[in-house]
Each structure stands twice: as C-alpha cells, then as structure tokens.
C-alpha cells in the first residue's frame, strides 16, 4: 500500500478524499493535515463531518497534523485540498523535499511546467513532471487538478476537438458544496440563484484551453479556441450543471457527436480502480437532472443530454457532473492512479 496524506482533511473536499480512499486497494491514508487550530486533535474531534456515510472508523482517532513542511512526512503521496493561498508555498516546499503531490488547489495550475490533468482528456501532459523536476531541481513534483466546473466541460469537448472547435460559451449552475463549508449563507442560497462566483469564470476560461492543448516539447501549446463562461450558484447541494454552446469551423453531425461521446476514453491503459464510463448520453428530453443523475458511475460519470443543432456549425447541450467527486476528490484519486500506472508514484 502507498502511504498517503490528505491535506485540508477537515474541509468538504478533504472529507470526500477521506471517504473515497477508505477502501482503496492502492492508497492508505496515514496522515491527515489541517490548520493549526485542529492540530493534535483526533480527526473525529477536529472535523465536522458533512458527508452521508460515516467517518471511517480507522481514522477517527488519528491525530490531525498541522500543514507545515516539517510535519508532513513519512508518506509517499499527498492529496492537497488546501485553499490556494496556503497551498502555493507549502506544496512547493513539499515537492522540493521529494513528496509527490496531487493538488486540487488553484495555486500552481497554470504554471508552464505543472501538469493540469483530467485523466481521460490529457494523460500525455504528465510528461511535464520530468520537465518540472529537471527545471526546479525537485525530487518530488506537483501535478494539479482543474476547477470542478472545468473538469466535465473539458471531458465533453475533448471528443469534439477533431471537428475544429472555434468558440465555446458555457453557463454553469453550480451546487452549494462547491463553496465549501459553511459556504454560501442560507439567506443568500435558499430559493435564490447567485449570478457570481469569485474567480470561477476566469478559471474555466483559462484552464480549459490548457487541458485541451498540445504538449509541445517542454510546454503546453494551448488550444486555439475561445471559451466564455458565466457562472451561477444554485440551491442544490451537490452537482454542477452546465449549458454549453459550441461553434465549429465546419458543419457537424449530432448523431456522430453522440457516437464520439459513447466511445470516448483517451487513457489507453488497463482499467484503474476509480475509472468509470467517462460520459453517458441521455436521450430523454428532460435529462440530466441533479436528483436522478448526479451519482452516475459512482459520481465519476459526466451525464450529457439535450444535444441539438443551433445552426449549421453550432450545437448546444446540457451536462451534469458531481462536483466534489468527479470535479474534485474523485478526479484527484483517478489522477493518482494514473501516476502509479505510469510509474511516477
């Protein structure tokens, strides 16, 4: 078993990592990191558990460790769910010490020598790890996960890139758990839609073109597409829905796009423990729906519906993804499984 740390373990995404790793066949959580105020307390005392399954018994009495370079040790792999302002310097120091880090934080995502990975979309970008280690003199590395709304959008677009995508416009309807805990105040969230999420639109627009770009030597040549996003917080707990409008250079076939989604899987490796069917298309005119579809593929499958033509070179569709599983901890764990498969962990 690979000894594993979860940093930010008391937060919403950190808890999801803990939950999904409980019975993992490759990774064993042996260290839980959080803020100084939680340090030294048993996990059950330090963590206000928010998920719908019980806290793993094996970790209830494990003392929480302060997230500092001195305290994070004796592990082979680190999952970081820290806020970006804390993650940046800490992750760099840990990688310099030789630790292998899969980071959900935004701090390093857009750096030239740091991979930004959705395993089914761009597994080849992991080659940047060697560039990073040589350039920075690190024994370890940082490999990052995208924003939770970027993940399903990139998955939906990847099979369509061969048709010369020109422009993408997306309007997101994002669940409350994406804001963490306590998140959006109840009087702002209940019976309401908030048409602003700080920093979200910029992340979707910049991360998407890196994910869909091409590895060119020691850097990523970003995809030459225009991405415009409008992001909204809606009163559901889990799940991000996105209404997507895509314009192509030439005419496309709706039926062919459905076939491309049905056969999509770019990992090209033996099935990994967390891997599920990446995309499922639903023919019903009123799907996908949060209540019915957010847990498709144990929360790892992006469901798509309502694909229709919007002109001779345009289509529009709706997608739904579980934001703390597929968009966060689940993607991170699949990412780490891919690293292990490639011999990098």
Descriptive overview:
- The protein has 345 residues and is of the alpha/beta class.
- The protein folds into 2 domains: 159 residues, NAD(P)-binding Rossmann-like Domain (Rossmann fold, 3-Layer(aba) Sandwich); 173 residues, 2-Layer Sandwich (Dihydrodipicolinate Reductase, domain 2), CATH 3.30.360.10.
- The protein is 26% helix and 23% strand.
- It has 10 helices and 14 strands.
- The strands form 3 sheets. A 6-stranded parallel beta sheet has the order 3-2-1-4-5-6, with helices on both faces. The protein has a 6-stranded mixed beta sheet with strand order 10-7-11-14-13-12. The chain has a two-stranded antiparallel sheet with strand order 8-9.
Mean pLDDT: 96
At the fold tier of CATH, the topology name of the largest domain is: Dihydrodipicolinate Reductase, domain 2
> End-to-end span in angstroms?
11 Å
Domain module count: 2
> How many extended strands?
14
What's the helix-strand series?
Answer: EHEHEEHEHEHEHHEEEEHEHEEH
Question: Which strand order do you get reading across the main beta sheet?
Answer: 3-2-1-4-5-6
Radius of gyration: 19 Å
Which architecture of the largest domain does the CATH hierarchy give at level 2?
Answer: 2-Layer Sandwich
Feature tags:
single chain; 345 residues; alpha/beta; Rossmann fold; Dihydrodipicolinate Reductase, domain 2; 2 domains; 6-stranded parallel β-sheet; 6-stranded mixed β-sheet; 10 helices; 14 strands; 23% strand; globular
Topology:
Layout: E1 2-7, H1 12-21, E2 27-34, H2 43-46, E3 65-66, E4 77-80, H3 84-97, E5 100-103, H4 128-136, E6 141-144, H5 150-157, E7 165-174, H6 186-189, H7 200-211, E8 214-216, E9 219-221, E10 226-233, E11 240-248, H8 254-262, E12 279-282, H9 290-293, E13 302-309, E14 314-321, H10 325-341
């Amino acid at each position: 078993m690979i000894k594993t740390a979860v940093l930010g373990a008391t937060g919403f995404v950190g808890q999801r990592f803990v939950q999904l790793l409980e019975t993992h066949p490759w990774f064993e959580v042996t260290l839980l990191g959080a803020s100084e105020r939680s340090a030294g307390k048993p996990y059950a005392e330090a963590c206000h558990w928010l998920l719908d399954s019980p806290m793993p018994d094996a970790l209830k009495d494990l003392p929480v460790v302060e997230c500092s370079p001195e305290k994070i040790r004796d592990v082979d792999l680190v999952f970081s769910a820290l806020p970006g302002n804390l993650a940046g310097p800490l992750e760099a120091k840990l990688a310099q010490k030789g630790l292998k880090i899969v980071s959900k934080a935004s701090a390093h995502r857009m750096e030239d020598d740091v991979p930004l990975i959705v395993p089914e979309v761009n597994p080849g970008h992991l080659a940047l790890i060697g560039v990073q280690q040589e350039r920075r003199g690190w024994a370890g590395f940082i490999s990052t996960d995208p924003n939770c709304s970027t993940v399903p959008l990139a998955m939906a677009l990847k099979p369509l890139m061969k048709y010369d995508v020109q422009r993408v416009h997306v309007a997101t309807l994002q669940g409350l758990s994406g804001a963490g805990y306590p998140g959006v105040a109840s009087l702002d969230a209940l019976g309401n839609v908030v048409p602003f999420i700080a920093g979200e639109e910029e992340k979707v627009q910049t991360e998407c073109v890196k994910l869909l770009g091409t590895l060119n030597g020691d850097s990523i040549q970003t995809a030459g597409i225009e991405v415009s996003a409008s992001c909204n917080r809606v009163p559901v707990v889990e799940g991000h829905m996105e209404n997507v409008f895509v314009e192509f250079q030439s005419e496309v076939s709706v039926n062919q796009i459905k076939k491309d989604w049905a056969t999509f899987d770019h990992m090209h490796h033996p099935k990994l423990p967390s891997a599920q069917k990446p995309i499922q298309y639903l023919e019903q005119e009123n799907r996908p729906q949060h209540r019915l579809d957010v847990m498709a593929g144990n929360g790892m499958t992006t469901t798509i519906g309502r694909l229709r033509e919007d002109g001779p070179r345009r289509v529009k569709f709706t997608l739904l993804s579980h934001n703390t599983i597929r968009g966060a901890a689940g993607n991170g764990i699949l990412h780490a499984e891919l690293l292990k498969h490639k011999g990098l962990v």
